[in-house]
């Protein structure tokens, strides 16, 4: 076994969910609190696959006193599509010279049969699109399943907002992953907590009982007061999503219900169900039914 803690490490790369687990284990093995005590030369973290915002509270904690540059990339087995080209801005430059032809399906046509697409010359700022690609390796009009928006035109810069299948719209709330990532990141930041993973599904309405959203959260460090965490989470969603706010204001949906599961629940579940998720797939952040929610609750030790 190679002792990586003794190596001169200057950069790391990987999905935030796995990198956080790796770094916390590294600190545990070396009996240290901060990463700079193990890797004093670390200066760059290149990340992708999932949004980094929910993991920033724990990263800020273990990288304390260490100035780290963060660069987000948008790549997959199908191609390399974007890279963060500005240090202080989180959007990514869309790569136009990597042998990829881009098309975009407007948000309202994503679930229609054979939806029309538009090209780069027709995209608009801050509109939601699904990305479609054709590549010089032979991949033809492949739907990536990612929802993006353009933050700049000439040059074209984008942000990833989530997946086409990862949303909740049972009550007309139009909740997407970008909303929940922002909300949980703010709740963690203001309560001094951190999460490893989470997923959200609907609670269906019953007679004399409102529906809502059920959150399953695996905390790395717990908030001192869970009620405060829920209030911040709910208020942030209301601030950034007018459809959600309207339904909360009119008592059409209740405040979020949070279920806490033990450490390792998400990782162990995915690892034991590779036939469902595949070796590189991620647990859905949001799903428009209770399919994954109920499976995970039955698997975990939560009662």
Describe the structure.
The chain has three domains: 64 residues, no CATH class; 71 residues, no CATH class; 133 residues. A hairpin with an 8-residue loop joins strand 4 and strand 5. The protein has 303 residues and is an alpha+beta fold. Helices cover 26% and strands 28% of the residues.
Helix-strand layout with pairing:
Elements lengths: L10 E4 L1 H15 L13 E4 L8 H7 L6 E8 L2 E5 L8 E3 L5 E7 L21 E8 L6 E11 L4 E7 L3 E2 L6 E2 H15 L2 E10 L8 E10 L4 H15 L1 H8 L7 E4 L4 H7 L2 H4 L13 H9 L4
Parallel strand pairs: 1-2, 2-3, 13-14
Antiparallel strand pairs: 3-4, 4-5, 5-9, 6-7, 7-8, 8-9, 10-11, 12-13
Helix pairs in contact: 3-4, 4-5
List the defining traits of the structure above.
3-stranded mixed beta sheet; 14 strands; single chain; 303 residues; alpha+beta; 28% strand; 9-stranded mixed beta sheet
Order of helices and strands: EHEHEEEEEEEEEHEEHHEHHH
The rounded distance between the terminal residues' Cα atoms is: 39 Å
How many strands appear in the DSSP assignment? 14
Mean pLDDT: 87
Structural class determined from secondary elements: alpha+beta
Low-pLDDT regions: none
| Strand order across the largest sheet | 1-2-3-4-5-9-8-7-6
Q: What general outline do the C-alpha atoms trace?
A: globular
Number of domains: 3
Specify the number of helices: 8
Cα-atom radius of gyration: 20 Å
- Major pleated sheet: 9 strands, mixed
Helix content: 25-40%
**Per DSSP, what share of the residues sits in E-state strands of 2 or more residues?**
25-35%
In a nutshell, what does this entry contain?
This protein has 303 residues and is an alpha+beta fold.
